[in-house]
Recover the amino acids of this structure.
């Protein structure tokens, strides 16, 4: 969720490698971007991929990547794998409003582009000008609107956020915006949750203004890192609801600690080693949260005590492995000079959630390695027991993104979204209720009213 993508290779002076966030889009491909509906009512979205490829997402969770063939048809692979997918698309020429699908169960035949009402805009936040977009189902009636709150990605939401089509296709308006320092928005990229929440609150205000009489209930929808930001933004705004997917209720430092525990357990290490690793991540977390002032002596002591052991060298996490390899001084130098985005390492999600007075939907991925769910699940259950208005849903067999996967020698390969996930989001956004079933989703226990 927070990984910077940095690599530290320390020689005499050190070497830094970083990756750029935004990639070019091919005009000949993006002219087909849109959301479509078959005669039977099935919905499928066509989204851009860097270069000349496209990605399709079906409302039932099927997904694939396609490229144009010499015969003019588009085909490709399943999910994010290299496995050939039988689905083939005739997208026609740029400017056409329909496409033809074959080989995709439940979607074969002609699909027509769903017309949407789209307003591009700018709004001010914290002295910055941010670029946004309101997308509504066509019509005149009020509709619910969700403000999309980014994860940690540096890409342009205006270009890449598929939610701006797949939610309006279900009758839910959405407001997307390029967060500060990305896409067409001003400022510098940041992971300061207070600043990002302020931006999200201003985005919600702008969405209400633009929608006017078409604004029904208006809320915030955050994925991944957005799960820290959206509830905080709700305390700064007049949001009517909050939706969070694959987010965490623990601090970012605890995310690192949870990842280390999962990685070492998966590698076969026992509880004694896991307890030692917890001591290590407690120290690295203190260092991150304090700006590298608290924990230096303990860091040196633990490296001297366990630094030659295999489990110690196997630690990765979000940042702990890098810090252990590099040492505090070198890690601090590279982090501060190249990667420090003001991350709110000590963020207290429970304190924030206790201030949120509106209904909350929280969707967990049961096998999430990037946002391990166990501690979050426990905290949310406690908040629910205390009377907080939270609907907790879990897709047990999914990883980050609510994506199903297969294990390979190279790690996980995502194959599709969980069946029912997109419908669940649409249903809850429309009326605050879950009308499942939604595939294998574990839904909230029904509330038993006392006589």
């Amino acid at each position: 969720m927070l990984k910077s993508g940095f690599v530290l290779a320390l020689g005499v002076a050190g070497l830094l490698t970083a990756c750029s966030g935004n990639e070019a889009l091919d005009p000949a491909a993006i002219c087909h971007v849109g959301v479509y509906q078959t005669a039977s009512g099935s919905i499928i979205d066509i989204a851009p991929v860097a270069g000349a490829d496209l990605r399709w997402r079906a409302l039932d969770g099927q997904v694939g990547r396609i490229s144009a063939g010499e015969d003019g048809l588009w085909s490709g692979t399943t999910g994010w794998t290299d496995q050939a997918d039988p689905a083939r698309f005739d997208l026609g020429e740029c400017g056409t409003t329909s496409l033809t699908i074959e080989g995709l169960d439940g979607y074969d035949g002609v699909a027509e582009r769903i017309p949407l009402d789209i307003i591009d805009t700018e709004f001010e936040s914290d002295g910055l000008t941010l670029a946004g977009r309101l997308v509504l189902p066509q019509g005149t009636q009020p509709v619910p609107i969700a403000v999309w709150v980014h994860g940690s990605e540096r890409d342009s939401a205006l270009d890449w956020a598929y939610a701006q089509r797949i939610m309006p296709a279900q009758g839910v308006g959405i407001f997307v915006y390029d967060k500060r320092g990305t896409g067409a928005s001003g400022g510098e990229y940041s992971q300061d949750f207070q600043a990002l929440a302020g931006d999200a609150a201003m985005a919600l205000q702008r969405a209400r203004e633009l929608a006017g009489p078409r604004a029904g209930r208006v809320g915030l929808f955050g994925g991944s890192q957005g799960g820290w930001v959206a509830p905080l933004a709700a305390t700064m705004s007049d949001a009517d609801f909050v939706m969070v997917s694959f987010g965490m209720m623990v601090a970012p430092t605890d995310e690192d600690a949870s990842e280390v525990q999962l990685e070492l357990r998966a590698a076969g290490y026992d509880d004694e080693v896991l307890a030692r690793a917890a001591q290590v991540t407690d120290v690295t977390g203190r260092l991150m949260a304090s700006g590298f002032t608290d924990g230096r002596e303990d860091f040196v002591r633990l490296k001297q005590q366990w630094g030659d052991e295999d489990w110690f060298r196997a630690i990765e996490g979000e940042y702990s492995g890098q810090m252990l390899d590099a040492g505090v001084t070198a890690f601090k130098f590279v982090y501060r000079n190249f990667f420090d985005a003001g991350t709110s390492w000590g963020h207290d999600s429970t304190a924030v959630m206790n201030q949120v007075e509106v209904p909350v939907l929280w969707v967990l991925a049961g096998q999430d390695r990037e946002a391990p769910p166990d501690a979050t699940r426990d905290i949310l259950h406690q908040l629910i027991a205390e009377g907080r208005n939270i609907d907790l849903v879990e897709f047990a067999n999914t990883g980050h993104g609510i994506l199903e996967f297969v294990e390979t020698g190279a790690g996980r390969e995502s194959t599709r979204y969980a069946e029912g996930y997109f419908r669940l989001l649409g249903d809850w956004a429309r009326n605050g209720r879950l009308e499942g079933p939604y595939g294998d989703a574990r839904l909230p226990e029904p509330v038993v009213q006392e006589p």
